[in-house]
Write a structure and sequence with these properties.
The protein is α/β, with parallel strands linked by helices. Helices cover 55% and strands 13% of the residues. The two termini are 22 Å apart.
Length: 220
C-alpha cells in the first residue's frame, strides 16, 4: 500500500483530498498538514511514497517547503495542486524537482490518474496549465511552432516524442536502437530548432500540440 502525505491550507479541502485519495486505490494517507513547516515535518518523519501539496499552503510557503524537502530527501515524489494561472509557481516547482502538477478544480478521475502516474515513477502535467505555461513563455506563436515541427527530421520527431513521454537519452537510444551520443545529438538539434531550453519545455509543448495525449495529461 502506498503512503501519502496531504498538505492544504484549508481543513475541509485537506480532508476532502484525503478522502478522495483513499477511495482511489491501495493508498493510505499517513499525515495531513495545513502549512509549510508541518508539511516538511510530516514528509521527513513519515517518508511517504508521495506528497500531495497545494500551492496555497501558509506559513512556510509551498516553494520553500519543497526546496527543503527535495534537499533533504531528493527521492521524494511530489504532486502539486494549484490554480490554473499559477504559472510562476509551477515553473519554480518543476525546477525544484516536482514530478507532477494538477489544477485544484480538476475531476476525481484526473486526480486519480495523476496520483497513479507520479507514484508509478512517471511525470504528470495538467494540459490546461501546460498550455498557459507555453503561452506565457517567450511569445512563441502557433505558426512558429508548426513551422519548427515541420522542420524536424524523422529521427528528430521520434526523439521529440520519446523525450516528451519521459524517456532519458539513454532509454530513448535503447528504444530506437541507436547510440546514446546519436540520440543526444538529435535531441540537441530538436531543442535548437524548437527554441526550447529544457526537457520540461519540450514536454509542455508536446501536450499543447497533442504529441502526448491531451485528455490524460500524461507524459509517461
Amino acid at each position: 500500500m502506498n503512503s501519502i502525505v496531504v498538505a492544504d491550507a484549508h481543513l475541509f479541502t485537506c480532508k476532502g483530498i484525503t478522502t478522495l485519495i483513499q477511495q482511489m486505490g491501495p493508498y493510505k494517507v499517513v499525515a495531513e498538514a495545513s502549512e509549510g513547516r508541518e508539511a516538511v515535518r510530516a514528509t521527513l518523519d513519515h517518508q511517504p511514497d508521495l506528497l500531495v501539496v497545494s500551492a496555497d499552503i501558509g506559513g512556510l510557503d509551498c516553494l520553500e517547503a519543497l526546496a527543503i524537502i527535495k534537499r533533504r530527501r531528493s527521492i521524494q515524489r511530489v504532486l502539486l495542486l494549484c490554480e490554473t494561472d499559477a504559472c510562476q509557481i509551477v515553473r519554480e516547482a518543476i525546477r525544484l524537482g516536482c514530478e507532477g502538477f494538477l489544477r485544484k478544480n480538476t475531476s476525481q478521475e484526473d486526480l486519480s490518474r495523476a496520483v497513479a502516474e507520479v507514484l508509478g515513477g512517471r511525470t504528470y502535467a495538467d494540459p490546461e496549465i501546460s498550455r498557459r505555461l507555453l503561452l506565457a513563455g517567450d511569445g512563441a506563436s502557433d505558426d512558429r511552432i508548426d513551422q519548427a515541427l515541420r522542420g524536424l527530421s524523422q529521427r528528430e520527431r521520434a526523439v521529440f516524442r520519446l523525450i516528451a513521454q519521459g524517456h532519458t537519452n539513454r532509454t530513448a537510444a535503447e528504444s530506437m536502437h541507436l547510440s546514446h551520443k546519436t540520440v543526444e545529438k538529435h535531441r540537441a538539434a530538436t531543442m535548437r530548432k524548437l527554441k526550447l531550453k529544457s526537457a520540461v519545455d519540450l514536454r509542455m509543448l508536446a501536450v499543447e500540440l497533442g504529441v502526448v495525449q491531451r485528455g490524460s495529461g500524461t507524459l509517461a
